[in-house]
Amino acid sequence: MTNIVVVGLGEMGASLAKILTAQSDNYVVGVDMSEQSLRYALENHLVSATNSRLRDVASQADVIILATPVTSIEKSMQQLATMSLKKSVIITDTGSTKRDIMAVAEQVLTPMNMKFIGGHAMAGTHQSGVTFANENLYRHMTYFLVPSSISESSQLQTVLQPLAAKFMTIDVARHDALMATISDVPHIVAFSLMNAATTQLGPSTMFGQYVAGGFKDTTRIAASEPKLWADVLLSNKEAVLASQTQLRKQLDLFAQAIENNDDDALIALISSARESRENL
Amino acid sequence: MTNIVVVGLGEMGASLAKILTAQSDNYVVGVDMSEQSLRYALENHLVSATNSRLRDVASQADVIILATPVTSIEKSMQQLATMSLKKSVIITDTGSTKRDIMAVAEQVLTPMNMKFIGGHAMAGTHQSGVTFANENLYRHMTYFLVPSSISESSQLQTVLQPLAAKFMTIDVARHDALMATISDVPHIVAFSLMNAATTQLGPSTMFGQYVAGGFKDTTRIAASEPKLWADVLLSNKEAVLASQTQLRKQLDLFAQAIENNDDDALIALISSARESRENL
């Protein structure tokens, strides 16, 4: 019997819990601040048991999965470092940026000989909360694993196998640069496009009737959760700023080509973008 | 019997022709440089007749619809100004930017007492060519009409009624500013995101496996046709550059807030974008 503690029953954590609970050799304890979420999780068999306090259940755990926002993950890690846990316990998280989390792990967990492996699945929707638990959320999705200095990821992969995700080990710098470019800056761009449009055209209720599918696609992720994304952007600060500088350079190339009526330069820029997009 | 000449049997023109030909009181003549397109249009009943030269059929026309790329539209207008047309003829176009086209109309058509009404439907897909003629292409779509100094759009609307589009009269400056903000700059952004990603991460075949739906949505329109979009961006130059400056300001607000670790500012920026997107 593997005792698994999942902290945070949002969409990511609740989906993890649901999938792992469905395995007969797992005993999954859900931890959340919301009594309502805990009740929902128990009633819908997303977990085997619930508890509102990590410290009440951590000592029994073989695997602890921290599935809260990044700042709460770091607090939980600091708490765990003060508890007496199983020697073999594996601690992991689901935070979408890894630099700060890995730094905290090396600072507080590694000295206690606690094994930590950072985790980040390229999964999740715009929906949030325990009611969006979905047993297919991770299927065929890339699931990054970021080893710390005393971690070893094959055991964790065995436990997480029922997710049917594509596990991939990656180092922290590469992970965060990748996220900045393929996720964080695209979000900033979508937010900025919406804000620029309302600045120029007034409320979106006024111009919404005119927009075609292109604008809707390009701004779809502008509807993301503000607190969560403020956290993500700040926790990946250096990589985000570096990646945004690269984007600005590309935008400047377009402005320059348009300014100069340079048809050839524009066609070259667009052709390169088109080819990359088609090969994605 | 209304004699309608459609110049340019691409997706937009061929769809228009197909819809209008289906009305028994219309006689639709398709004009295109490609013999193959003309043959296809005739064989598939998209038109009543075809001709490879506008000058052979223009004098009979009650309505002339110029559905070629912007630069060709302008050339056709200059040709029409030298021909003897019906006194009552209405000339319109389907170009996605209107400033240059309206300027040419005032310069060459108005002095000849020829009625011109600019047209632009918020319809069309990434597909191109006569084989994509679609009788539902315009259904429920906004179709902008831009009056020139001697035009009157109710007659044209009567002819175009079978499209089932939502017709909306708009002035040229407002039209082009709107397009810059909701279409042109979003395209530039999508192109730039792709180019910035490949600059930082290498070919998209290398990082494509990691990207989630957000990146795919945001860059979908980066797969657009290079020559066409170079034309669009250059023909709407002033409005595009002005709108891109507004976007850059919004991007800078994000960079600044991240630089300053300003959680509150970030949440405010994202909340405003989210609300606008949800009300779209």
From TrEMBL, chains A, B:
Organism, scientific name: Leuconostoc aquikimchii
Domain Prephenate/arogenate dehydrogenase: 2-280
Alphabetical list of Gene3D superfamilies matching this protein: 6-phosphogluconate dehydrogenase C-terminal like domain, NAD(P)-binding Rossmann-like Domain
SUPFAM superfamilies, per the entry: 6-phosphogluconate dehydrogenase C-terminal domain-like, NAD(P)-binding Rossmann-fold domains
Pathway: Amino-acid biosynthesis
Family: Belongs to the prephenate/arogenate dehydrogenase family.
InterPro entries (alphabetical): 6-PGluconate_DH-like_C_sf, NAD(P)-bd_dom_sf, PDH_C, PDH_N, Preph/Arog_dehydrog, Prephen_DH
Protein's name in the database: Prephenate dehydrogenase
Oxidoreductase is among the record's keywords: yes
One Pfam family hit: PDH_C
UniProt keyword list: Oxidoreductase
Superkingdom in the source lineage: Bacteria
